[in-house]
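Hi U.,

Before I forget, here's the chain from the pilot set. I'm dumping it here mostly so it's searchable later in email.
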Amino acid sequence: MRVYFTVDTECSMGGAWSHPGRRPIGASRRIFCRIGEEDFGIPLLTRMMTTFGFRATYFVETLATRCLGESDTRPVFEFLLRQQQDVQLHIHPVFRQYADFQKAQDECVEYRGPQPMDLIGHMGANVQMELLEESIEHFETFAGYRPAAFRAGCFAGSLSTMKCLHRLGILVDSSFNPCYHPAVSFPERPLEPNLVQNIEGVWEIPVTVARTRLSQAYNGYKFADCTSLSFPEIRSMLEASVRAGQEHFVIVFHSFSAVKTKDETYAQIRPNRIVIRRLKRLFQYLAGHGGHYQVETMGNIAQCPEALHSVSSARAIANLGFVNAAKRQAVQWVNNAYWL
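Structure:
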């Protein structure tokens, strides 16, 4: 089974909309997550994965360049490409809107941006194309190539988004997250969880989910993410998928997931040791079971579409055990205290 470790790599508004004195938070704090002389963001992830010979797909958000400048975005691409990681495209339209809002303020004119503010798939097709074309232009400037894979911010893809991606030559999408369907993720169509399928000429490799009865679930699901699931829970999802013959398994992470922040400004951050331990155990497990799992990237699979054309409909939707889920919930309740 192909396992994709995907990292949404993005800056943050940091409350800039509601607090005029603030500015969006740049790469140093939100992507590199620098604490003293050590980085707990993407440098930590690349170090850990390189130890086991793995590569991740980093979906890098580029519209923040409008707010923070090329000097903030460029080092992210330079670092990841130097580390030979798979870099693909991510979009949060809110950064473009914030830049347009600031420009309107400077020119003393009224600003009315598209709504909803950060859900690209819910916007008109023309607006989506404009945002995608701009983000790809930034991407090519920094990467030197066009992206082959995409993930919408907030998992807010849609059928119209897929049509736009197809027109732009992007072959693979990983935006569908059943936890957020139908309000946010693919609202127009009842897609099947954990099933790879071709939509509007683009291959959708969805975020992998499991069922849970705990109250923290979204839509009755939890998705594979080391910040919200324990290692035993993710392992049970992986094992269930292998038994069922599922061929593709997508894990989600964020550039800032291995740190805890005191507030939304990221002025004070600490390492999240529990999440870091989960990551290490996950990578050790995957490396120790190479006969079952092949850690793959979205960029590679986009270059081998025959592997998707022949994909089977076999899949599993694991049920997370109550005991492990309850233990994890208790641990996370304690861990959420910033100073612990």
